């Protein structure tokens, strides 16, 4: 039985929620289009101060269009993954990750339109904290279920050569991301935590810790297993490529 990832009805069905959000984002923008001035605010700081404007035609369409393009990209991404067959092993988790990212973009659009119409700029800071917390909580919860692939997760030379190292590394990263999400949730009510979160890029810290942890596991396993090593230059180059192509995912997370 061929269990390789394929873009079929079952996969599309799992994306019903983000597709619906994209449609709602477009419709909401069109509904209020005539009520908007030519230039509308599109960027705020965490305190609700406006720092950028765009023409309304761009403001109401940019994020939904970006969400649609991103959705198509993520659905097609497994086709260029050398480990495409592994997606069938975590297809539900992959669907949740896609749902989360698309929902984040669309909900940002909806909140932006509400703020534009109502002038409640304080919604920006609160909603931003909530969205960030949800991203880390959801990602952290599902990270341990991700199987080896070339694009999502903590990709290092050492997680590439061993599925056991991969699993343990994602488990640690998931725990730390979930913990970060809990702190972000508390920061909504405890303002002091916001300054702590802004003082350091904690997602980057988690990536560094997880990467060093994967190297530690590699050294530990190499002492007890003859099969864990880089035997050829091609293996080293491949492992470096494996690491590099995981960077865009973490740039988005950061």
Automatic annotation (TrEMBL):
<feature type="transmembrane region" description="Helical">
    <location>
        <begin position="91"/>
        <end position="117"/>
    </location>
</feature>
<keyword id="KW-1133">Transmembrane helix</keyword>
<feature type="transmembrane region" description="Helical">
    <location>
        <begin position="236"/>
        <end position="252"/>
    </location>
</feature>
<protein>
    <submittedName>
        <fullName>Hypothetical membrane protein</fullName>
    </submittedName>
</protein>
<dbReference type="Pfam" id="PF13630">
    <property type="entry name" value="SdpI"/>
</dbReference>
<keyword id="KW-0812">Transmembrane</keyword>
<dbReference type="GO" id="GO:0009636">
    <property type="term" value="P:response to toxic substance"/>
</dbReference>
<dbReference type="InterPro" id="IPR012867">
    <property type="entry name" value="DUF1648"/>
</dbReference>
<feature type="transmembrane region" description="Helical">
    <location>
        <begin position="172"/>
        <end position="190"/>
    </location>
</feature>
<feature type="transmembrane region" description="Helical">
    <location>
        <begin position="53"/>
        <end position="79"/>
    </location>
</feature>
<dbReference type="InterPro" id="IPR025962">
    <property type="entry name" value="SdpI/YhfL"/>
</dbReference>
<feature type="transmembrane region" description="Helical">
    <location>
        <begin position="123"/>
        <end position="143"/>
    </location>
</feature>
<dbReference type="Pfam" id="PF07853">
    <property type="entry name" value="DUF1648"/>
</dbReference>
<feature type="transmembrane region" description="Helical">
    <location>
        <begin position="16"/>
        <end position="33"/>
    </location>
</feature>
<dbReference type="InterPro" id="IPR026272">
    <property type="entry name" value="SdpI"/>
</dbReference>
<feature type="transmembrane region" description="Helical">
    <location>
        <begin position="196"/>
        <end position="216"/>
    </location>
</feature>
<feature type="domain" description="DUF1648">
    <location>
        <begin position="21"/>
        <end position="65"/>
    </location>
</feature>
<keyword id="KW-0472">Membrane</keyword>
